[in-house]
Amino acid sequence: MSESPLPVDGSHDEHDEWEADTTEEAEEVESEVEEAADAAVDEDGDVLPDVDPIEEFKRQLRGQFGEWYVIHSYAGYENRVKQNIESRTGSLNMEDFIFQVEVPTHTVTEFKGGKKTPIKERVLPGYVLVRMDLTDESWAAVRNTPGVTGFVGLSNKPSALNLDEVAKLLAPEPTEEVKKASAKATASTVEFEIGESVTVMDGPFATLPASVSEISPESQKLKVLVSIFGRETPVELSFNQVSKI
């Protein structure tokens, strides 16, 4: 049986050094992966968003054809109008000009039977959003749709929404994980203190001085004491409804 050839000219040492270097590189890569994974969650294991969802949504908008326009519709018939526009787009062969129709909604919580129930609520009752290339033909196709009463803006030149306006109306709502992580981040940077004097900036008590009595970081709300007719009255306000003195 032939013997395995022996390394010559110090190649055995070089092989060991190469193996050591490769092992160190692998350990470094593994460490970086673990650090990246750790950075993606907080101390409680909640996933943290690594990309601003609003900015990501705006980036997607920039890559889409057409612009967004707002049309008037009969209140309560927004979804019917959406279906009507989509049907006319197909029947009039306007797919290359009318791309998308949306009824903006957001989630609100209602109490039914003693339980919290999330429901979808229209953001702009009586309005529908359409993404389209505006031409005389596409304008007429939308304007003459049953249930549509007109475009927002000048009758002959509707006003297109900008990216911020579209994002505010149509951006996906944050998931519960993102809401929780965001609330924790806010909680860690709360700048108010119990007993601190503030000025109410919004609502019926605007401009009145108050003192902070309770802080709820996760809901971003404060309970403040406002002096009304010589008596301190507790009022619940959002962080952005008060200002430091």
UniProtKB/TrEMBL annotation:
Concerning PROSITE patterns, the annotation shows:
NUSG
- Protein name as catalogued: Transcription termination/antitermination protein NusG
Task of the protein: Participates in transcription elongation, termination and antitermination.
Q: Which residues form a coiled coil?
A: none
Keywords annotated in UniProt: Transcription, Transcription antitermination, Transcription regulation, Transcription termination
SUPFAM superfamilies xrefs: N-utilization substance G protein NusG, N-terminal domain (SSF82679), Translation proteins SH3-like domain (SSF50104)
Q: Where is the NusG-like N-terminal domain?
A: 65-173
Region of interest (Disordered), ranges: 1-50
- Acidic residues: compositionally biased ranges: 16-50
GO terms (BP aspect):
DNA-templated transcription elongation; DNA-templated transcription termination; regulation of DNA-templated transcription elongation; transcription antitermination
Tell me which species this is from.
Acrocarpospora corrugata
Pfam families reported for this sequence:
NusG
In the record, the note on similarity to other proteins reads: Belongs to the NusG family.
Signal peptide (residue range): none
- Looking at the UniProt record for this protein, which Gene Ontology cellular component terms does it annotate, in alphabetical order? cytosol
